Amino acid sequence: MKRRNDAKRSYSKFVLRKRHPADSGSAFSYKIGNSPLHRCPAWIKILVLPVVSVAVFELPPVCAAALLVFQTILAFCLHFTLREQLADLRAVLYYAAMLLFVKGVAFVAGLWASGNVGAEVSQIGVSVAATNSSVGAVGGSAVEVVTAAATNSSLLETAFMLLRLLCVMQTASIVFKTSTSLQLREGLGAIELAVRRVLHLRPVTPVADVVSLFVNFIPQVSKNWQQVKRAWKARGGKNSIRMYLVLLPVLFSVGMKQAYTTARAVTVRNSRI
Predict the structure, then answer these.
(1) pTM of the entire structure?
(2) pLDDT at 16 over 70
(3) Pick from 22, 23, 21: which is nearest to 176 by CA?
(4) What is the C-alpha separation between 225 and 128, in angstroms, rounded?
(5) 8 A C-beta contact, residue 26 and residue 222
């Protein structure tokens, strides 16, 4: 009987792990794989990331759109699910929705204002003379066309900027999902050691250590949030404002605890060197 209960508990844990993997839904978390991109040295991917980011903002929007399509196909080839990709792009998507909403409101307000101006000009023209009325109508239409064209140009520029941001975030997502935290740290260390070798400096990596801690902070915070959110839902909680009011202090406390533990570990490590 005891052996049967142990088997049931093991099976339950296995099912829970399959249903809720440790990093499921967390942003910029490593995903196990054996692709050529996974086997590529991390320092190469770290150097390619800023090059691609700068090129995306310098090249025409068509290149950014083509790159985004290629990145999406590559992500699916690497077995990244749509949910995992959206988890990394969620911040940009929220920002895009808010920005496009504001731009849309401004566009509608501009059309409404230009329409009122045209009506006022035409009314004044009718009261003065018939010719002035036609001139006023033409003037109102010209104002409306110019305003609409300027607003459309602003909307296009906003859409192009968001497209470029999506490309940059997708590039960073692929780098994070194909490189472990240790590989990123070693890649940053290799780059710093190469620079110090050229400058004839001591072979230490203080900058790489600090940057690697900051880089690993992003997926760790996302992972902590997913864990506390799953715990909240497991206790019958629902998505509401109360959930954020309760969980955000918990997230802050867990993050401070992990930061303190990491700082202690770094202090002990440096004292032994």
Answers:
(1) 0.66
(2) no
(3) 23
(4) 68
(5) yes
